[in-house]
Fold these 2 entries.
Entry 1:
Amino acid sequence: MQHEKIKILAIDDNSDNLIIIRALISEVFPNAITMTALNGVKGLEIAFEKAPDIILLDIIMPGMDGYEVCKKLKAHSKTADIPVVFITAIKDDKRNRIKALEAGAEGFLSKPVDTSELTAQIRAMMKIREATIMKKNEKERLEKLIEERTSELQKTHSETLNLLKFFQAENEKRKKSEAALKESEEQTRLFKRAVDSSSVSIIITDLEGNIIYTNPFFLKISGYEKDEVIGSASSLLKATLQPDTFYNNLWKRILSGKDWMGEIKNQKKNGEIYWVNAVISPIISSSGETTNFVIVTEDITQKKQLLEDLIAAKEKAEESDKLKTAFLANMSHEIRTPMNGILGFAELLKEPDLTSEIQQKYIHIIEKSGARMLNIINNIVDISKIEAGLIEINISDSDINEQIDFIYSFFKPEVEEKKMQLSCKKPLPDEKAIIRTDREKLFAIFTNLVKNAIKYSNQGTIEFGYLPVDLIQKPESLVFFVKDTGIGIHKDKIGIIFERFRQVSEGKNRHYEGAGLGLSISKSYIEMLGGSIWVESEEGIGSCFYFTLPFCPAKSAPPVDLRTENEKK
Ligand code: ADP
């Protein structure tokens, strides 16, 4: 600040004093502007309006005294920095000086004002003023700087905040994606566990049908090791066990992106065949391309077997039903026929004029009918006993040659009546033909088979007996046979004739009498005695029934002589 341009305000109620001050100032500071006010209020007005550099202030003034004016000046921001110099009449008025300092004054001048003192005071005030202005400017500069820095800091702060928010958001995103990744990993693990522990076979193949994954259940079912199947073609998709068309249709469907469902015949490592219910689905990528196939199969071998058994049981039940009807009709016929014979010819016998020859004929027919009736009743009783487990086996020494002789002579007349021949084979010498068996049962078996041979033959020869025995080899069983040149048995029926009530011609097609029990009873007896029965037959040529019985020579039988005839001589 140039001293010359300083503005000084002098406030004094005495105009003379003001003139003196003005004069003094212009003398020392010719360029200074001196403003004057005759009271405190006016002084304050000028101070606020003109902002002087220094205020010279009288203390004692009417109305508002100098202290009051000074306090007001110092209280207002606009004037607070203007140095105030009190002008007092009493030079060493200590009390007033303290009061003035308390009011905020910066300096003191005593009246009458001395030029040098005024100059010194003004210069001092000017320095204070300059310092104050400098301080103020510096403060303003600093404040501005602080403001700038603060705004910069605020900017940086808000940028940092934004960055922080960004990082927080990024962090949240990362956390979310980490959680999503963890969840998807957990899901993948769950799927893997589910697939691994599943009780159905699961296979994943490439587009050529080569296996790239199988679950443990498939390995368990198929018997293969993991290394043996991975990379190899899935046998489920390999055209080996079913016709080509089957696999062609399957491939066509799955390659078109559709599921295939159905039953597939498959093979285990050990060659065993098993059936599976399969669902084959293409795995389609997000771009819509088929990348793999997944094959889910359930082993249905047992179910299929069960179904087959059920169908067989159903068929058997239906057949049994048919058989029951046929049996009832058959039994009715088998009982009525001899009964009619007995009653009818008994009635005829009542005729008074019958010749004895006719009478004998009728009696013979009645006897035959009675025997037939008795045979049926015996068969029914026997089969009932067999079913009830009431049959007893009586093992004793049985002379089989003797039995064969008896049967031969018993049936010979009947065979010859049919213009046929009967012969028997007994290769063992009589003394060695005694075995331990149930003779009654053996007799019943032979009788049944020979009777059938006669019944089902109309020409030729009936031969029965047992096959030659190699006594050196000591066979375990004797093979008996009854051979005829009769009607024979169709190969489809050979399996059923040993069943109860089963006949080759059943129902309305029956041509021969009989209840279908003889072979079933014979079979049961043979099995009870430890043997077995079978037949070799050709329709229209004849049949040969074979049965075996354990070859247990009787204890009483003499030791076998193995010497040749020459040796004996
Ligand atoms: P059936 O009383 O009907 O003769 P079987 O049980 O003795 O009863 O015989 C069952 C069936 O076996 C007969 O109905 C017949 O069809 C057939 N059969 C038995 N023996 C012979 C045979 N020697 N030649 C031809 N068929 C026979």
Entry 2:
Amino acid sequence: MKLTYNKSRVSEEEIVTIGEQLSSYAEHLKEVLQHGYEDEESSINLPSDKELMESVGAAVRDKNTTSLKYILVIGIGGSNLGTKAIYDALYGHFDILEPSRMPKMIFLDTTNPAFLAHLESFFDKEITNEEEVVINVISKGGSTTETVVNAELALGMLRKKYAGIMNRLVVTTDFGSLLWKIAEEKDITRLSIPEKVGGRYSVLSAVGLFPLAKAGVNVTSLLSGALEMRERCLSLDIGKNPAMASAAALFINYRRGKTINDNFIFHPELESLGKWYRQLLGESIGKEHNREGEVVHIGITPTISIGSTDLHSVGQLYLGGPEDKLTTFISAEYDKRGSVVTPEVFAGVLSGVAGKKPADVAEAILKGVKIAYEKKGLPFMEALLPDITPASLGAFMQFKMMEMMYLGQLFNVNPFDQPNVELYKIETKNILNS
Ligand code: PA5
């Protein structure tokens, strides 16, 4: 992945100053690699954890069947967004066009009555025996309302028909959570999440690895992409460290009133990757208090836009409205397959497209947008992936998770907690218990 930030309206001096400020933290991150899962940044140890791969591999083999059709992923927030990001990028976005490709993932996060009703009739029609399904219930804390409710309902639907369905269930949670204890009592297959690895940093743990491996994603490549990126993001030289440089551009722009980071993604299949990042940035940096406990009400608001769809919806706002955004254009080298446009039916309607491939048109639009942003003086960065493969996705996600750690330093907030999210969880539980 290549990060370009020379259009972010941040000077080289400013970048260098931030690099100096963050170098001791980069040293600290290197030390974290020696400490296993002791530190709050310990998610950076996941890509090189051999035991993790072994435990995930054993669970994958244990649930192996030749007739697997559906992987039901039950979890929310950090427990499913990363898995969905990778699945959608590689397969999910194309599911409707490839009905016979199996297995497919079904994500159950909100307690949406309509979706659950459809799911029940879908199970009745599509599943003929329990070996066609694997259910993965994922909850770090183990007692998230939506996840527990959805797990009970989905298992209730399947247990009516299949006596052995509990053998198709895997629970991924913190070792020792109530969910873990109950799964242990009932002899349900369990995978653990290291205590210090928070939900939104957990995609490269069993949380993401198990369902993705079951779906046929090459998780070894995913991890090797992440590992390679981890090395780059530990560099003390900010010019060679994309996580540090991107954090610097976001921070400096924030101080200049660019409180929104629009992630303008020019591949629709990466929309879920954008949503994964939205949680990562929103929850990690959006804080009421700083590390000293002072009230700061700080945060960058992450937005996701899809090119070129959203040029036809919010392009006007972005190019003409308030100048409150730093944009990150996210794209990958375009797939050059596909037929060329041969104007016949609508010949004469549009010039310049004859003989062009879809990739040529998509590239022209992206280039056109960047020129328009430049002419308007709107700051932007660019993250260019070489392709959309497990290795590139692993690298991108590792880059963003480490960017967040550097941003936490710059904003002087804890990027690993989410105390205010707990407020609604407590209120919901109070209402349900009243
Ligand atoms: O990142 C986070 O910590 C949150 O988004 C959680 O992942 C989310 O609230 C779900 O929690 P749990 O995994 O405990 O069910």
